[in-house]
């Protein structure tokens, strides 16, 4: 990509809020996600506001500078909610959203991807942006401390001044770039803002803490009408806008302009890593092995683990596990995923006899005979028929049980023994579930001795996990697409005891009703009238149909005229395509934006192994020509 003598700049007040507002801002708004690099350099990050397409830590917004003056000596800026404001020009806590004008759209490679708002998005240049996970960070730290982490020879320049040093001139600090396993990383010291804050890998950073960031391609949004590339994220901060107390709007005479067109322009050019000599490679590998032994003498596995992994780990190790969470969070479903044929005991309705068995008088012998409870007979039979497999005894609704029943359950959990007589089979495992008192009026406090006999997992169904589950369990595509479109806002609604409310279980029921009746209006009996009304509107939208795509019966203007909801609805309809037309239809959906491509894949696969392989092949075929990297 060649832009000749074009220089980096910032958006103006008029381009962002005025009569000359560019299309990118008109459609996407002023909220902009902030990178970890900008946060670490002292940029403000909001925990309350996220960009519309990303509710994760990466989607949090910051505030960013414009190139305009407010007329009273201050610089215009865009705050966390996307609104216009102004600030003193000497401040360093604002972030930088670079803009690069171009003269001809043909300068930009056609391999860009259409984003969710219909704009072409391209990758141009590279920059440190997001933190690595904690395990990789530990490895990089060890290699760095040992002095064997390879330097690429490239550095990134920022200001070494403290975030509130408004009266001090620019004092450069260099962040060296290192290479590890073919990727590049930068070690950055957090600017001393006096506060702790969380970055995208979930780590809470304190002042002066070092963090490893991966160098990755910069994503730009193409505004064809305004002929400019606009950075999709806030890339840097900690740079004073200008040294004058009164900013008069002459952007080319500011420190910010100088920084963008010297330091930033140079830094974003990707480094070229030379190949190791055989001797260097051998020494490097030997040093890595030595450090790995020192770093992990016990051979442990480090990294984030999911709720499901903790549950499986407890079951495999023979530790009883307790699943907490409100009704409808899928606690039972998680157990059944591990053991579909588990033995379930509903403790809310249990009696001492149903749990412990009973004694029956034998009139012939004059003795009492102990009779096993039916659940114990079932688990014994399962464990005996499949001795190499673990079988679960699921104590459901344990917090809704009477204290006397909880006491009996305690003995089963503690001693793995029933009625002091019968031992549970060796390959039997115990899982319990219940609502906490804050989640259910019918819940009882779990006795401390019983509580302490469990490993505890707190279940919270996220939008992402529900969508993944829904894609594997044939949830109706209209419901899947609607929940994805709403970013999970309607996955749940408040329960008031008077009207139906939405929750993950209700949406599963709604899917069954929609498949059976084909009438979305009926869902008001499950999720309430307000959500149903909105769902009906979502389903009843203008779309580009499957026949339109297969036969090429559409224009670029038809695509551009689709709003976000219509793109979701179009994707939903196209997911019904037969395999013979998959490549053509999938290519069309990918053009709507990467988000819609991911939704299409999930809807089309629907948990089918052969379809999963087919999509994997399609993705593999796309890899050589995918993306833009210069």
What is the fold's blueprint, element by element?
Layout: H1 13-16, H2 23-28, E1 33-34, H3 36-40, E2 45-50, E3 60-62, E4 64-69, E5 75-78, E6 84-87, E7 95-96, E8 99-101, E9 113-114, E10 120-131, H4 134-145, E11 150-159, E12 172-180, E13 183-189, E14 197-198, E15 204-205, E16 210-223, E17 228-231, E18 233-234, E19 236-237, H5 255-267, H6 278-295, H7 307-317, E20 321-324, H8 331-338, E21 343-346, H9 352-356, E22 358-362, E23 367-371, H10 374-385, E24 391-396, H11 403-415, E25 417-418, E26 422-423, E27 428-434, H12 448-451, E28 455-458, H13 463-472, H14 477-485, H15 504-517, H16 524-527, H17 529-539, H18 546-551, H19 556-560, H20 564-574, H21 582-592, H22 594-605, H23 609-622
Parallel strand pairs: 1-18, 20-27, 20-28, 21-24, 24-27
Antiparallel strand pairs: 2-3, 4-5, 5-6, 7-19, 8-17, 9-10, 10-16, 11-12, 12-13, 13-16, 14-15, 16-17, 22-23, 25-26
